[in-house]
Amino acid sequence: MSTTITVEKIMIYGSSSIGVFIFANNSFAIVPPDIPDKVEKAIEEVLRVEVIKTSIMGSILIGVMIAGNSSGLVLPKHVYDREIEYIKKSIPDINLGILPSKKNTVGNLVLVNDRAAIVDPELEKEAIKVVEDTLNVEVIPMRIAGHSLVGAVAAVTNEGMMVHPLASDEEIKKLSEIFKVRVDVGTVNKGSPFIRSGLVVNSKGALVGYDTTGPEIMRIHQIFFEGSR
């Protein structure tokens, strides 16, 4: 029997930039400790995942600080020991890697699904090795539409990928080959090209910023869920 795919509009802390506060894969979502009950319920019902509450480096910007897939999570160098221990306790079967880089915004530096990852071309070689080993994927340094923060200007699952509207046809073709998914351009929150700031998506559903328009939601549904069962 088919399961209905839902794309739901939400706000967090009065903001439509919901993706900066949430990390999610197909099994769990990591969110700030004081996330509103209404948002927690939406995450559980739409993405159909377990919700884990923690800060990262004492920050509520979870989506900016974490990158990951079903194999593992990559955390910033200055993550607190107590946060690492809590994640290990909450998700005992996930690989955890600490990025050996001065750059803390791991979620902006790495774009990954279960097949591949691309990263900021300026990321250090030892950091790339940690991403490869933790997430168990091949890692390719590249930009999208001139942007090195590839995790900010795109969102990818094992089914689809939405990228910055200025991504070239050549980039779209290359990304499709790398991640082995359908790739197309789009925006969120009334035209923002920073896809991840307004979109939290997995294979089961999507949450979008409250300012996201009907046509933008339609595009998200087409890219990530067309043909889903």
What's a quick, concise take on this entry?
This protein is α/β, with parallel strands linked by helices. It is built from 7 helices and 15 strands. It has one domain (6-225): L-arginine/glycine Amidinotransferase, Chain A, CATH 3.75.10.10.
Please tell me about this protein's structure.
- The protein is of the alpha/beta class and 229 residues long.
- The protein has a single domain, classed as L-arginine/glycine Amidinotransferase, Chain A, CATH 3.75.10.10.
- Helix content is 28%, strand content 24%.
- The chain has 7 helices and 15 strands.
- It has helices at residues 37-47, 62-65, 81-90, 106-109, 125-135, 169-179, 214-225, and strands at residues 6-10, 23-24, 28-31, 50-53, 67-68, 72-75, 95-98, 110-112, 116-119, 138-141, 154-156, 160-163, 182-185, 199-201, 205-209.
- The chain has a 3-stranded mixed sheet with strand order 1-15-14. Strands 2-3-4 form a 3-stranded mixed sheet.
- The chain is globular and about 45 Å long.
- 48% of the residues are buried.
- The model has no long low-confidence stretch (mean pLDDT 96).
